[in-house]
Amino acid sequence: MSVDTVSMTGWGRTAPTTALRFRPRTYEEAAVAVRGRGPRGVVARGLGRAHGDAAQNAGGSVVDMTALDRIRSVDAVTGTVVCDAGVSLHHLMEVVLPLGWFLPVTPATRHVTVGGAIGSDVHGRNHLTAGSFARHVRALELLTAEGEVRTVLPGTDLFDATAGGLGLTGVILSATLVLRPVATSLMSVATERAAGLDEAMARLTATADGAPYAAARIDLLARGRATGRAVLTRGEHAPLDALPAHARRMPLAFRPLQLPAAPAFLPEGLLGRTSAALLNELRHRAAPAARTGELRKISAFFHSMDALPHWNRVYGRGGFVQYQFTVGDRHGETLYRIVRRLSVRRCPAVHAVLKRFGEGGTGWLSFPAPGWTLSFGLPAGLPGLARLLDGLDEEVAAADGRVCLAKDARLRPDVLAAMYPRLHAFRALRQELDPGGAFRSDLSRRLAL
Length: 449
What we know:
Elements: E1 2-8, E2 17-23, H1 27-35, E3 42-45, E4 61-64, E5 71-75, E6 80-84, H2 89-96, E7 101-102, H3 114-119, H4 127-130, E8 137-143, E9 149-152, H5 157-162, E10 171-178, E11 180-181, E12 186-194, H6 197-206, E13 213-218, E14 230-237, H7 273-286, E15 290-297, H8 298-302, E16 320-327, H9 332-345, E17 352-357, E18 371-379, H10 385-398, E19 402-403, H11 416-419, H12 423-433, H13 442-446
Parallel strand pairs: 2-4, 3-4
Antiparallel strand pairs: 1-2, 5-6, 6-10, 7-11, 8-9, 8-10, 12-14, 12-15, 13-14, 13-17, 16-18, 16-19, 17-18
């Protein structure tokens, strides 16, 4: 097991802190790392794609799980896989797609570990029909503060605290997942433009019973009648007979596009209002007014940003803050007000995505809840950003909504309880199982979790 001291950030590249990093290669070494933690505690870390500080632990220990990356078994008949928590979703796809299986839920990046997907209870474009990631977990092995391994099953309090619990109940070592069958590695995609937010929401609602995957890219810089204009994409897994003849020879091939990495250093202000507005304008005009039946690779449909390694660098050295919130259908006006506020403020957001959520999961700190969710990123150095987002927090909380903790870097603890009604139960279970506070992170200290 290697051990070193490193400075770490989340994917947003803000608020770096230094911790002792353990990189175990076996479950036994992971237990040694947990038992050998210092007074500042320990937290597990995967591929570092949490946007904020959930996988940082200033002055403490971090267990890097990426060397625990074995796929232990795949049942190609039932679509069940048992794998270590450090296995990435990318590697999982490499193995199961050729067998005719796909992840039941995938977020916007495949460079996430299975343990991170459970700890964040990640969601995808198909939340209306599939829920979030933990719904498809049949069992997991959890390393406790004492260095013991417990098998945790759905329907138990410990499972519900761990799903979306951001690594604060223990270190997930392995999981048993149920996959979904597919005939090809291509998606049949429909694209259409919406002139404003009303139209975008109406179309997303109208297509809720159609293609299982749906999202709208919102232009948060458009104003006036075009406020909230969007490009909607809906998709479903393409059947074999939809493929051209040459593609039917290898219908389950998985070959993601890889572009050169973004430069290590880019000038601040590269994504200012002018450049962001121009990029949004070009994207909107380039999108077809209406098109159906387009075939796209799975990687291009779900993980377009993964084609550019280290794309988080485009925000410059200061990094960026990702903000995602959800509100229920009866609080749609809150969504309108927030979009209008961002539009009037001319916030340079170039990747804002609107989706529908279905029934929430059982995780006590799991983010999805029925209604609407909007996600966007802003340069961390944007003047007045803290005041702006604090105001959005208050609006979201007043509408019985919540922000996504896995993407959070700056939420105040005083609004947390209003957003997550099971917070008290989570804290109580943590106190019962881990009275010494073995599992901690920068996020847990900031929010008093």
